Amino acid sequence: MTIVDVWGAGERVVLVHGSLATGPQEWHGQRPLAGAGFELVVPTRRAYAEVPVTHAEDVVGDAAEVAELLGDGAHLVGHSSGGLVALLAAAQRPDAVRSLVVAEPPAFSVAEHEPAVGRLRAALEPLFAEPLGDRAFLEEFLRTVGTPVDTLPTALLEELEHLVPAIRRGTAMWDVAVPVDALAAAPFRTVVVSGGHHQAFTTICEQLAQAVQGEHVVLPGAGHEIQEAPGFTDLLRHVWAGDRSHPSDTAPRS
User: What is the C-alpha radius of gyration for the chain, rounded to an integer number of angstroms?
Assistant: First the structure.
């Protein structure tokens, strides 16, 4: 991790971005929280910190670095593959985590026998094996995980295209084992958020929340880009304040 931005001052929060993004790109919608008594620590994970890309995405290695960023204690938030990073980091340093919020982490290991999850993996595996150009890979990957490609500005897609080698060379998310027993035994509150747009992610989030004795919240409206969904920033405020009144376990059942 070669770049760490810090926004604001106050209670520490570590925000971990997902694949095909930088920290500031992903968490711009949460930046106003820096003026509300929070120190937002926003790393850009090593594989995405420089262009042209020279590192493969490394979920396990990133988790060790994020665990150090927790310092003496912090709230921890992760989106997509950054959610996997956050889960691993929280298990490494549970006493340094004040709360954990993960948004649609591709935690295949907790629901690998569920049909919808198997279908998502079956759609992704050939994509990584095909000799596609980076732009074609990018657009197909985003569509497969539920990001509305047609709404993304052309300039942003061009930026993201340069980051594609990091994910193509990196850790296969279905090979990452989530340490659910350690997380279930941890003292902090865990909230798992899905967007209600993709049965595989709904199932993963339901199963993960159950496995770690956490809560499952659904925030529709932004596809896989949960950090942009209406209500996500408010949810963070509730969790960080220790307020359990926010509606939870609201996922649609299949």
Answer: 17
Per-residue pLDDT, 252: 39
Q: Which residue has the tokens 């990001």?
A: 147
Query: Residue 247's pLDDT is what?
Result: 53
- Tell me: the pLDDT tens digits for 117-163? 999 999 999 999 988 999 999 999 999 998 889 888 999 999 999 99
What is the rounded distance in angstroms from the CA atom of residue 254 to the CA atom of residue 251? 9
Walk me through the domains of the chain, giving residue ranges and CATH numbers. 3-240 (3.40.50.1820)
pLDDT at residue 201 is higher than 70:
yes
